[in-house]
Amino acid sequence: xxxxxxxxxxxxxxxxxxxxxxxxxxxxxxxxxxxxxxxxxxxxxxxxxxxxxxxxxxxxxxxxxxxxxxxxxxxxxxxxxxxxxxxxxxxxxxxxxxxxxxxxxxxxxxxxxxxxxxxxxxxxxxxxxxxxxxxxxxxxxxxxxxxxxxxxxxxxxxxxxxxxxxxxxxxxxxxxxxxxxxxxxxxxxxxxxxxxxxxxxxxxxxxxxxxxxxxxxxxxxxxxxxxxxxxxxxxxxxxxxxxxxxxxxxxxxxxxxxxxxxxxxxxxxxxxxxxxxxxxxxxxxxxxxxxxxxxxxxxxxxxxxxxxxxxxxxxxxxxxxxxxxxxxxxxxxxxxxxxxxxxxxxxxxxxxxxxxxxxxxxxxxxxxxxxxxxxxxxxxx
Length: 381
Prior knowledge:
By secondary structure, the chain is of the alpha/beta class. Helix content is 37%, strand content 8%. Strand 2 (155-159), helix 6 and strand 3 (178-185) form a beta-alpha-beta unit. Helix 4 packs across helix 5 (139-149), helix 7 (217-235) runs parallel beside helix 11 and helix 8 (261-278) runs parallel beside helix 9 (297-309).
């Protein structure tokens, strides 16, 4: 578990959806439930310019540094917009998040850890020369690029954020060494407007599952299992990198999927199994989006940390009174009482056949038809 209190300095200011209190409350809940006692804690240092340059243009990094010193907007690099306000210290805060994901990558690649988690990371929208979607430096892409620089020949990236992982896809779009898979709400109804099934890269290395608004646990899990496991098994990555934005939850204010914490927890367990099955257990885990700051993010990511530790939290576990008190003190909101939404996610396997009239099945078929032939797989069940 990579952690430094300074990771909460990535702060776009009052009223911005990406409030650092969500990470603070996550770490507090994980601590109060005893989850952090089950993991080795590691610190981190900011990514240096050469590490940032694995993905970002140096003139962009220089521009971010200038904004960081002055606090003045620079729309040329995307800082000073409503999504990405300029603030003093933005370079240092962003570089530290990238450094945390690099530390996670180093620990897994060197064998110091089988799994490594950076819940403050997952800033998947940042482009080579532009801040975008609350993201300044693209820490998952930087971690993947670093793995490639160390000799990795196959890295798989699975993104379960409700928004398309466009920045990571763009960084490796035509690189056959990296398989990027993103499951997200349809770009017809949600930012960033990309992530259609036809965006495949030159080698079928970009995979996009664009799900209809209103999709819940059963449909999302059906789509996940119809696409992700067969591709990971065929690709055979040396390392699995995953991004776990929990803004697919029904309560998230910025999107329109309808998952529960229980559905999200089920997805984390599936990815854990796939890391062991397809990548020798080498698993690098980041956070991501998630804007229901009390009811969703802390519980979802505490489940994520616990899953990665090998000691999942029983869903019916009560939230500790100490944590509930902290929630009221920090936010004034009523905290959730247990670690579950009371759901028991079930789904039907796609191999049993599909319904052309079902919008989720149409999304699955569109992705499989676009991608599976590149990998020698049959697109239809």
